[in-house]
């Protein structure tokens, strides 16, 4: 059989062009392409009019879907062009790499062996501990008596040198270094991918084969050597199968590195060795399907193990291979003009001349992407690297490029379930934003909300919550915008279950098993309630109960209260039984109230600020809970903190404000404590902390309570200059948290200085202008009462 081996680089533009030319010249009667045979079931779709690259084959273990890999293809992928040629010419095409069934099976066996070894070592350690014979030498097998590093347990060889490690990872780096390149990929591009010459494809592939021959002979390979041996053994086996089937002219399209290993496919010793190495390999069942891919994801090192960082540039080279740079720079200029930037034709010409000059200095036949980027940044971006980043995203990567797959393709169970639920909820897939206002009292809207919340749990952000102008919790706002990448995310989450609800349940439970944080578990419950994942909620509550009984971390307990109280409002609208959650909240708040005063004692500034935020959130949760008994317990605890010595003033200030807002202490008492905090006997730093805690992000009280305003104004006015400069960052931080309108009003008020307190308005201390007309204001009160419905 006449055999032609065409070595390529995956996603290589020059490789793809040479493949097309060489296949047309050879006209083989069978084509073998690198890729697992499982892909044979889906490659017939390559020429389907609705399959638009970039796309990828998702191959997964049917029994354990979490074990999966992707095989991405672009229009300029050599394998894509080879398969397209075969289908157009009705030439049989076989995928010839080691079956994924074996690859997955080997990985499973390795994991089982690792787990078995781990358990064995644990058992040995327990036994040694019981016998009390553990010694430093016995527990450190990595060092021998002479202090020398022992051979690797996996390979039986000594450690790799820095030289060997570099070239085991990328053997091309050796040739690149000799040629003066820092990057092996760049050297390969300049010598094999960018130098496509018509009618020279035979010379091209002979040059590739010669290069790989030399590398395989002289460069040591350690990385994945065992797996590569198996793959090449199976490739040779496939070539022999093609010969046995009676084909007379066979073309092999494979990664350039494998080429030399396939030439001796028919030697007797090689056949014997291949049969021996492939015998008895573990196996599992594998399924495949096409999914849409993106240019950004073409950079992923998965499947073929070849990622590319500039797919947009490669696509340009595929479409305009003879372009020396002028067409590319024109595209860059057009993009900048679309962004309302002033780019002239002269700019483009100047950039092109600079790129050509750079190429000549580097002894290149034409400018490459590096030269064009440098010219773009210098001339079109005026030296601005941020503008070049825009070129990278929009053109070099082409992040908006998304592939398409036929609708009639076989789908995973979770995809079918998703489509069925989507149709049931009457939600359309569109690329444009579409807003929905859901009334949770209606069955359809409740189903929609439940469905979108479940997708949220799976991190599939099809819907984004938006605010709507309504009161209560019976309405939700969602903005839906479908992006093709979400199809990939849906398939990825299919590893967790065949339906959306099953995937949500297992995914959330898996996250829960990985954390010991009560706050995080409460956040998971917050996600699970609107998604109505009741079995998950039950297990999360059990774990929180378990952890909270042994936890002494008050911050952790407080962090859990707010999200748990927040989900309680779904009870009436969603008809959810939240009895267990309410009981848990009661227990958590009781523990918090018991331990909080002592937890606040002796804290430094950083920890006090954290405690300050937790106290605020817990107070908001208590108010939302609307439980009088718990409110009284909470405010009693705050009262203890307010009068306890040894507590940071930021916490005391916060506590005073919360008790004032809750009407536990009145205006007179608040003003007294405010005055004490700002008295001359108080350290200025402590006073500033008290103010920060008391104002807690809102300056409204300073605008309307003139007593407090005057106390604060007098305190700032009497500060010595050095103390004022020392406290300025704290004061700036405090006032920076106010709304812009509040800051503006406070600034205007500060210009007036001390405010005269008007005591003629029934004891109110709200300041009013001196020329305020009380008689005229009183005439309007009756009308205002009628408008407000006040009897």
Summary tags:
3-stranded antiparallel beta sheet; single chain; LolB; 4-stranded parallel beta sheet; alpha/beta; 791 residues
Total DSSP E strands: 10
Percent in strands: 5-15%
Instruction: Using the CA coordinates, give the radius of gyration.
Output: 36 Å
| Biggest sheet descriptor | 4 strands, parallel
Shape: elongated
Strand order of the largest sheet: 1-6-2-5
Tally of helical segments? 35
- Assembly type: single chain
State the helicity in percent bands: 55-70%
Kindly name the structural category.
alpha/beta
Low-confidence stretches: 133-168, 301-305, 759-767
Biased composition (Basic and acidic residues): 120-129
InterPro entries: DUF5682 (IPR043737), LolB (IPR050458)
Biased composition (Polar residues): 137-146
Protein name: DUF5682 family protein
